[in-house]
User: Fold these one by one.
Assistant:
Number 1:
Amino acid sequence: MTAHPQCPLCTDDGGELVWRGKSARVVLADEPQFPGFTRVIWAAHRAEMTDLVPAERAGLMALVWCVEQVQRDLLCPDKINLASLGNVVPHLHWHVIPRWRDDSHFPAPVWAGAERDGAARLTKSSPLLAVYRDALAARLDALVAG
Amino acid sequence: MTAHPQCPLCTDDGGELVWRGKSARVVLADEPQFPGFTRVIWAAHRAEMTDLVPAERAGLMALVWCVEQVQRDLLCPDKINLASLGNVVPHLHWHVIPRWRDDSHFPAPVWAGAERDGAARLTKSSPLLAVYRDALAARLDALVAG
């Protein structure tokens, strides 16, 4: 695997590590306005999904769907937002973001301007976030174990 | 398939139709600042990727990867942006957006504020966009024909 010394996702976990597999890792993003905001980060430095071979793509998306399902099961958001952008850091990473109708930006994307003050429903120390984190790690382990 | 009379993606194509398959369609978005902005829209009214069974998910993502590849091959963007949000219209649709370093918003997401005037490289009447549209329809046909 070729690491790029200037790429922050090659040199750092990019968030609070929840799970690490052979080809990707899952982290909790440091986004206090958006509790549960999770990123699935490809291990190797690749920019686009079509830089991966089909089996790699399917494996990465299986992790994304797993995160989405655990968010739905435990956090009960009003909507899930998925995105792979990478304009600033062109190293494949998926944003998996639980959204609530009363969050600061809803229905706008989290990258738009805020719509309201919208105090986040959960904080970093909420017990439910710890439950989510542990359940997510267990479900990802189970997924990879097949 | 259950159509929702209040859902704009159940009642309208949602853009200039490029291709229609049994379970999804592909349209050019009406976003003059972002030429080539393409949407892949699931035919049935479903909100989340995990509302689909795995084979449906894989089929939908195969269309997304096909759009991404044709954009890379013909439009040569600096980056591809992928997103499934649906906060306003909770009917599964993927945004596949070719981005250029000098576009109006780069490196911000298209949903953030503009960074500069950034005249779009292509306009609705650019010959390259017509080539992209026709090539995309042909590649999607070939993909589905297997």
Number 2:
Amino acid sequence: MYRTNTCGELRISDKGKTVTLAGWVQRVRKLGGMTFVDLRDRYGITQLAFDEAKNKELSDQAQKLGREYVIQVTGLVEERASKNSKIPTGDVEIIASELNILNTSDVPPFTIEDETDGGDDLRMKYRYLDLRRNAVRRNLELRNQLTFLVRDFLVKRNFIETETPCLINSTPEGARDFVVPSRMNPGEFYALPQSPQLFKQLLMVAGFDRYFQIVKCFRDEDLRADRQPEFTQIDCEMSFVKQPDVIGLFEELIKYVFSTIKSIDFNEPFLQMTWHDAMRLYGSDKPDMRFGMTFVEITDIVKNRDFNVFNTAAYVGGICAEGCASYSRKDLDALTDFVKRPQVGAAGLVYVKYNADGTFKSSVDKFYNQDDLKAWAEKFNAKPGDLMLILSGSDVQKTQIQLGQLRLEMGDRLGLRDNTKYAPLWVVDFPMFEWDEESSRFKAMHHPFTSPKAEDLQYLESEPGRVRADAYDFVLNGVEVGGGSVRIHDRNLQSRVFKAIGLTEEEANSKFGWLLTAFKYGAPPHAGLAFGLDRMVSLLAGLDSIRDCIAFPKNNAGRDVMISAPSVIDQSQLDELCISLNVPEKDK
Amino acid sequence: MYRTNTCGELRISDKGKTVTLAGWVQRVRKLGGMTFVDLRDRYGITQLAFDEAKNKELSDQAQKLGREYVIQVTGLVEERASKNSKIPTGDVEIIASELNILNTSDVPPFTIEDETDGGDDLRMKYRYLDLRRNAVRRNLELRNQLTFLVRDFLVKRNFIETETPCLINSTPEGARDFVVPSRMNPGEFYALPQSPQLFKQLLMVAGFDRYFQIVKCFRDEDLRADRQPEFTQIDCEMSFVKQPDVIGLFEELIKYVFSTIKSIDFNEPFLQMTWHDAMRLYGSDKPDMRFGMTFVEITDIVKNRDFNVFNTAAYVGGICAEGCASYSRKDLDALTDFVKRPQVGAAGLVYVKYNADGTFKSSVDKFYNQDDLKAWAEKFNAKPGDLMLILSGSDVQKTQIQLGQLRLEMGDRLGLRDNTKYAPLWVVDFPMFEWDEESSRFKAMHHPFTSPKAEDLQYLESEPGRVRADAYDFVLNGVEVGGGSVRIHDRNLQSRVFKAIGLTEEEANSKFGWLLTAFKYGAPPHAGLAFGLDRMVSLLAGLDSIRDCIAFPKNNAGRDVMISAPSVIDQSQLDELCISLNVPEKDK
């Protein structure tokens, strides 16, 4: 061992001990005849003192130490003359008697400080230096703590962590698979799993009863800020349970995690909201519940005036922004621009200011008189000083989604989305199917193994759009952190659902035949859930992106810029795999 | 919840309670007017009783239950008339009052019993049924218990479990990589990691200090019984430590695992043996220490007779098989055939029987007299009744390896390799390099990031074959369960080692440039180790193969026969990836 103690360990009670520390040079200061070195490791920082008067040679050596040199120092623990109350070791310093340079360091490309001068690209290229920063390392420590807590919680409740295979089959449902050519089976490919969904269902058929796995999953999608081609799920499944059992147990898990990691105790059951209400009141299937500003629909009281936009609209509704009647023309123009952005896609924004003096000023004064607007305000429960923001459209759901985005924008503007606050929510009763314009057929909203609600089975063939599923999402601060469902365990029902999404019996058999076969041999009722670990860590860490909760993330082009992956491979490798490249000239 | 209790839970103290159980029908028996059903779940078996006299309809229903039906039963816990002391629930039965068939089952293709009539192929095809068998499920439970213990042990010692990426670069060193075409970077490929070796070293450069990960790794190798294309490692790395620190800590871990899981306490430090001694005494770098039968070399006392085979041999040595002087001609022929098998490759076998009457009978009586053989027997420490088995050859190491295989064969024949006994061993001081005939160059025996021993650095350029490494393997019962090394943390030494294995500076930079760059910024001294989880579980479970420690293993052709992976993918997928197939006619 190169050390007797870590750099975060020594206290005044260790005074008089001779110790050996090892770590990185954070900084070197010279004060008269004394040279001070801040020595850093993962556990903290300890001050080393070199006295020129006592040992000139050693002191000279210390002065020459560069930033991030790796050194080993032996010396006596002494009380500091000027203590530093900001760090736990701040009462002591080491009077160095031996110094051993274990490794030198070039000047790092950015400073290893909580606030660094390194940009994103540089930090990612030298990620091993970035990870030396407390701010980043702490996220990874939090991730480790979280997974440990989750395992402890689940194992104590008889869950068996079971590894499912990583080299599986490509399935045409869902997102795009990463595939792996098989050398031993030329012309055939494995696929990397998008989730262990079917394997965990087979484990239920196998009688495993309570399964979990913290597992890497893969999706070859075009990336966004909070997406990575490889991501990690806390994946769970249980037998002989119904929806409330699953929600109850995992709500307990979430509460345990928050209590242990954040000292936040949720004493009430988490709110549950139907998907329909979430869309109606928040325009989102993952509403941010840290603030209210729920939708007020006024479709039926705005008709019969000369305002054609409202008259022809299937939906007219809005939100009430408290105290925002003072918004300037410029503010309102900015909001109008916001809703008209292609990402939002609204045609325009109607505002109504409820002035402090009780009068109204709106963008539709031409069509609606003060009494009209007062009636609206009553619907909105608005007070003088408030601002009503109203959208309308011919497609109810699309308009609600636009309004939902405006709500979030207002939440941001008003500082209502505080990263230190947590508002958990279960969204339940999702529709079983959604209409897919592209393929002109219904597709499963969660996945086709989700159980329709018993009372809606009657509409499975006649009105698929009306069928709700026993599916649930766990939403935290407007982020979908987890999701799951009761699964189908009946072979016939599974066939009916496959048919409803347009799979012929033949297709269903060729794609999921092994699952249907498994269902023939006594599949128990089962249900499950998966949490996104990366998102859960980022929320607990109060971060906006998942990037810094992952040790070695990839950029938006799916590249690891540190090791420069992916890369070309040898022709001999291609030959062994019996594949050849076919890259169009423009992509070369 | 479909149940109030599990099938392994009820005891005589529960008598009088009304309970609901759910599970699988193990068997149905009719005894007079009574029908008994053994109901099974993961936790055990509980007997259900249906009385025809009390409820004819329910009793009739029970009689019609098929094997592996999934049912839910409500009833009263009663004391059994004839108790079954073999199962924990054997004192009670449930007097059923309600029966609900949750799912039917076809007759399973093999019996769900500890001893099944299903062959390997059938079991793998219906793995979800195979996993219902206690014998298989228990291995997976053991695996879960082991990983939980390991995590608990390491996290308590400040190790941070950190996920390293699964989509990395193909590296030409080592075994063959699985590769993954990148859609977003046409013509380029990710590779799946054979181990997180370089990433864990970067985590040490990052100051993570103590890292571990239980992680899937991938190797595209031709498979053998104990190899899988995807396997799991317990992967660890530590900074500021030396070889004894790593060995000490992980020996503690192994002892903790054995004490907790097997109630076996190793009170002494594990034996450590140099690689050289392991080869000299056991002809293996992973000797099975459950029995002795160490080699005796007699090269120098067999010369100067007319036996040319020995006269020209570089090595003559053997083992002494206690009490085997009575071996018949047939036994000895079988052993001769064994050593002459191509997998062993010896030219022949010399035997010397030390008869009970003190005389000797050997296959070389023509060349050696009784005094000669007596001198050999003294060297072998043989007693009357023993059998000496001797091999010779021109290549010392090859002959030792052949003799090592004979030793294991004798161990098997004499029942000395008992699966319930555990003999741990650290093999240390491995050679740094081994000569690769094929490429006519030295290659790293562990990997090129292993640190040569300080005292052997002087031979790095002049006599690479003489350089030993700070590398160590953990061997249990003749199986290499773990291995690791002190790593190089000095950029210059790393360059010298790359050069020794024939990598030019340019090649080294193109392949490992990012590692060499990382070493410029203050890499600490570090060392690590990885255990093969699959092998560790199989040893703890007393199994010969790793297959049944894996929930969904692949067969020797790398196929998952249950889901039939790998498989062909759509042309559209190939097109998106800019690759085309090139399968020779014969492989189609």
